[in-house]
Amino acid sequence: MTDKKYQTFIFDLDDTLLDFKSAEQQALQLLFSDLKLKLDEPAKQAFSNFNQSLWKKLEKKQITREQLFEERFHTFFKNYYQLEINGNSCSDQYLSYLAYGHEEVDEAIELLTDLFSAKKQLYLATNGVFKVQIQRLKEAKMAEFFEQVFVSEKIGSEKPDPEFFKYFFSHSNADPAQTLIVGDSLSSDILGGINAGIDTMWFNPERTTNFSQISPSYQIDSLSEVKKFA
What we know:
By secondary structure, the protein is α/β, with parallel strands linked by helices. It is built from nine helices and six strands. The chain has helices at 20-34, 41-59, 65-81, 87-98, 108-117, 130-139, 152-155, 162-170, 186-196, and strands spanning 8-11, 121-126, 148-151, 179-183, 199-203, 218-220. It has a six-stranded parallel beta sheet with strand order 3-2-1-4-5-6, sandwiched between helices. Helix 2 (41-59) packs antiparallel against helix 3 and helix 3 (65-81) crosses helix 4. The protein is globular, with a radius of gyration of 18 Å. It starts with 7 loop residues before the first strand and ends in a 10-residue tail after the last strand.
């Protein structure tokens, strides 16, 4: 597909505009400190992998949001540390720390500033907890760039569910033919965009090989590349 100009840009948040891995590690460090446990690299990776696997199950409607929040800490601590903890209270504490993780992905603010100055329509579409994602946006001073912010918890469905995008287009002024979604997740952002009939841009800074059957309209490894589509 040749480069096309778009009026509307939908951005994912985690690992597209804000560094989720950094926020996750910071929140885990504080949580483990509360529990008087040592957080080493194997534990970090084990939790991150387990947490991601649960979010993938949620995307596929194999578990509920409530099950995710209960399981991710109860099951992790039971299997990894042989500890019995209250999963929900642990999750609440973790989320309170996660809300302040707002390290910017390289060039994110610069890109948003340029698109905003060019009078493009900017929307945010994220899977996550509403109060956490809104707080992180505010901390990062990104909230003012977006006409609206769409969070799965409020909508009641997760990307890539077509219901998420039906809700988006019925509650925004976006024209699907002039809309591009930008995100780092093939299974969430890109598949969701394809199912919604809009063009998609896979943000792949690690230049990971795509072994899936999901084919984005475009692929970039730097956010600055988005500008040529504006």
